[in-house]
Request: fold
Amino acid sequence: MPPLRGFLRSSATSNDPLKRHRTVTDPVLVPGLAGIPAAKSSISFIDGSAGILAYRGHRIETLAEHSNFEETCFLILEGRLPNREELQTLRSDLASRRGIADSVVQTLGSLPKNGHPMNGLQVGLATFGMTRPKVDVKDPASVREAVLCLIAATPTIIATLERLRRGEDYLAPPADANTAGAFLHMLNGEAPSAIAERTLDCCLVLHAEHTMNASTFAARVVASTEAGPYTVASSAVGALYGPLHGGANERVLEALESIGGAVNVPDWYAQKRASGGKVMGFGHRVYKTKDPRAHTIQRLAGELFEAHGSTPIYDTALALEKAVVEDLGDKGIHPNVDFFSGIVYQKLGIPTDVFTPIFALARMVGWMAHYEEQHQDNRIFRPAQIYTGAHDAPWVALEDR
Reply:
């Protein structure tokens, strides 16, 4: 058998382990796999230089203005916009699957009240999956049922987690509300205002999908092992939890609150720059201009504050944006979606540590679309590595070490 391409044939006379293991063309490490294609996908598209994000060919600005979360879910899952009947069917399908079993509520209630909701969401999704029929990953209908259940029940799990840690009881989802309205109702115990519901609905549209980000890649890796959708969802939540990914919006709000007002921004930013610290909410691995989602969320914030009263933290955010862009804008550093989303969520009465679970609520549809796409032509992910350790290490008996 000929030697594997890219490797030297081992020499029987060579005592140099490096020669026996060295590749003909030394591989080049790309930290974080930046820019390395890991899959083909028709779900979403990004042009970072032009500031473009599109779902199935539809620009995010158009969807944010004209669409809603349920319609966007259909688009992402099916690859096209629904007609009126199809949209109503999806709304009904989701509404009928929002409830969670008593055993899930009991499990959520047993978790430490001071734990982070993202950890609770992982537990909740895994427990929820255990109450559902086993998924046949080879059967598209079985998978789609699990996908709908996950999209529908994730808001209920998140709202229930928050209610239970506040000492309140589980509140069943309303039967006639959309996803955003049902979530806010379950969270706060009352129907939301029209502007609050529309604001959250638009935020869900903006966060629903974003190509091969860390959590979506994690979802596809786990999906490639033929694990079921509930396990995949829980693993994706784990990846999203990190402050370099979904957890950034929490850190943004914490930073803005620590500044103490717009008047303090110049000194705060000068100290941050001098120390080499990172200003959360700015810059993006893909976008070299202002995140297109940030434009929409900033507009939503203005509309929400006009209806419900502004907040000093928004003025701080605007002053910080001005300072950072004037300093680093020519280097491609601009606000990303996390910079304004936390401010909006805070105004909606959502606790800071529930911001990232809401990100997961929206992104569940993107993860599940990638799950289904992965299984169209699945191959388990098994990347290579560049080994930097020793070869042929001598064995030393325990008594001689």
Notes: The CA atoms of residues 65 and 202 lie 8 Å apart. The longest strand covers residues 44-47.
